[in-house]
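User: Fold this; tokens only.

Assistant: Input:
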Amino acid sequence: MARRFGTEWVATLFGLAVFGQQIGGFLGASLAGVIWDRTGSHDGMWAIAIRAGAFATAVNLPVLDPRSPLPARGLNASAARFAQRGGSARLAPNHAALTQRNDAVRRLLIALALAFTPLPATGQGEPHAWLFGSWTGGTRPANPLATTQACYADPTVIFTRDIVLRTTLLDPTYTQRIIETVRATETGAEFRFRPMPRLPGVPAARQPTGTFGCASPDVLTVVRLGPNEIEFPGCTEFPSPLVRCPVP
């Protein structure tokens, strides 16, 4: 930066770079949270980060420092090839500079092609992708007047790609159930969870169950009632329908 813009601009340019970095960090964290709420996965954020990095590389590749001399080895090799093809020795340095510029343009085109290459779709291909996010209600009727902030502050069930978190009236702490398998059904989805581990030294009556009050403690059937409404039929701890928290 000092050679291109002068030392008097180093502090200003460095400050602008740090300011842009802070904006990117803030937006990146917020966007990652929105993508997680919508898909239950960070794969979409990874795709955006990869494309952004490739684009930044593409933008910087053609930048050449006009005050920096060309590498002697590259200059001599290019001049020699140019002279062998019958070119003038006086024009050889210009030819070497043009060759280096063309190489930078080719690298730019390759980076742009990588940046805009479609990435394989992830997350949304899961049979329960439509459930990803936070849900309220279930243990009691959902409050239709609740704000978005209130819904996300106290969701009843949270669906992600690999786990389901749930809380009940008698067990207000969130219990994590690890998904072993999930299959789509005509009315929704059916989950099979990994059995809850037994805690040593804890009486059987106080062992965490993580159940939904269904017939099987490790099976959960979800029925779609509408675009943003579901229910767990036959689960005594969730007698009411659940409503999806709106995306902020």
